[in-house]
């Protein structure tokens, strides 16, 4: 009986140590990760600041925002912070990946992940992100130039946006029929059952990776390092990644 009580107390202590920290970890992250990080706040003590990549850089570079860790959808932002001596270069690592989808506010258009509307030239309009500005834009360019994704027939019905949230807005407000965005961006919108999407095969575009980097002026280094280790290797987080359109890098 006493042995059982000791085991129970030890288990409780282990669980408690998993969630207890000296202070909240200050996380600066791109908008796409809002839902994912909101759920992680149930397990970790996080102080989360969400913004666009350009506004994040401005706030950090001008010392308007202090972070322990940055989560970004590409290497450009963390590398800029490393070069400006704000972040540790050796800490820059990929933590997850997402997928590219063709999205429509029509639950039937891509029902059961069918690409027949694409193959049979049935798209009425398409929004795509600028090739030069984001990884999603570059990946989209790789997709639409393939014969398996015909777009010539659309002519003046292809609309270009700076980033995928402009595309989401165009789809939500029914300014376009379809658009190419990341799965993680779609998972952040409401009433998802009103939409359908085609999951573009991974072989058709480069990996869309999310990265983490640690800041030099963090005063909470041990907890931040442990948090980063969990983001990369804790299999208990895999289902949370999937829920928000991501795949943990330890999952494959």
Question: What topology emerges from the helices and strands here?
Answer:
Blueprint: H1 2-19, E1 25-30, H2 34-40, E2 46-51, H3 53-61, E3 69-72, H4 76-83, E4 93-98, E5 100-104, H5 116-119, E6 126-129, H6 135-144, E7 158-161, H7 164-172, E8 178-182, H8 183-186, E9 196-199, E10 208-214, H9 221-233, H10 238-243, E11 246-248
Parallel strand pairs: 1-2, 1-3, 6-7, 6-8
Antiparallel strand pairs: 3-10, 4-10, 4-11, 5-8, 5-9
Overview of this protein structure:
With 252 residues, the chain is an alpha/beta fold. It has two domains: 2-97 and 208-248, 3-Layer(aba) Sandwich (D-Maltodextrin-Binding Protein, domain 2); 100-199, Periplasmic binding protein-like II (D-Maltodextrin-Binding Protein, domain 2), CATH 3.40.190.10. The chain has helices at 2-19, 34-40, 53-61, 76-83, 116-119, 135-144, 164-172, 183-186, 221-233, 238-243, and strands at residues 25-30, 46-51, 69-72, 93-98, 100-104, 126-129, 158-161, 178-182, 196-199, 208-214, 246-248. The strands form two sheets. It has a six-stranded mixed beta sheet with strand order 2-1-3-10-4-11. β1 (25-30), α2 (34-40) and β2 form a beta-alpha-beta unit. The protein is elongated, with a radius of gyration of 21 Å. The N and C termini lie far apart (42 Å).
Question: Can you summarize this structure?
Answer:
This protein has ten helices and eleven strands. It is α/β, with parallel strands linked by helices and 252 residues long. The chain folds into two domains: 2-97 and 208-248, D-Maltodextrin-Binding Protein, domain 2, CATH 3.40.190; 100-199, Periplasmic binding protein-like II (D-Maltodextrin-Binding Protein, domain 2, 3-Layer(aba) Sandwich).
């Amino acid at each position: 009986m006493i042995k059982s009580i000791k085991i129970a107390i030890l288990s409780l202590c282990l669980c408690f140590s998993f969630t207890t920290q000296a202070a909240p970890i200050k996380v600066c992250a791109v908008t796409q990760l809002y839902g994912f990080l909101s759920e992680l706040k149930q397990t970790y003590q996080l102080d989360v600041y969400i913004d666009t990549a350009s506004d994040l850089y401005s706030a950090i570079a001008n010392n308007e925002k202090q972070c322990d860790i940055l989560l970004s959808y590409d290497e450009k932002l963390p590398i800029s912070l490393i070069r400006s001596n704000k972040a540790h270069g050796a800490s820059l690592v990929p933590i997850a990946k997402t997928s590219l989808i063709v999205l429509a506010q029509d639950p039937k258009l891509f029902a059961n992940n069918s690409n027949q509307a694409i193959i049979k030239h049935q798209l009425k309009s398409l929004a795509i992100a600028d090739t030069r500005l984001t990884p999603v834009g570059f990946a989209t360019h790789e997709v639409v130039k393939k014969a398996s994704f015909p777009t010539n027939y659309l002519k003046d019905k292809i609309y270009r946006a700076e980033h995928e949230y402009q595309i989401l807005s165009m789809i939500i407000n029914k300014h376009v029929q379809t658009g190419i965005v990341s799965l993680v961006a779609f998972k952040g919108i409401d009433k998802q059952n009103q939409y359908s999407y085609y999951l573009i095969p991974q072989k058709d575009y480069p990996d869309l990776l999310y990265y983490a980097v640690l800041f030099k002026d963090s005063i909470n280094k041990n907890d931040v390092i442990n948090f980063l280790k969990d983001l990369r290797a804790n299999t208990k987080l895999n289902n949370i990644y999937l829920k928000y359109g991501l795949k943990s890098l330890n999952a494959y």
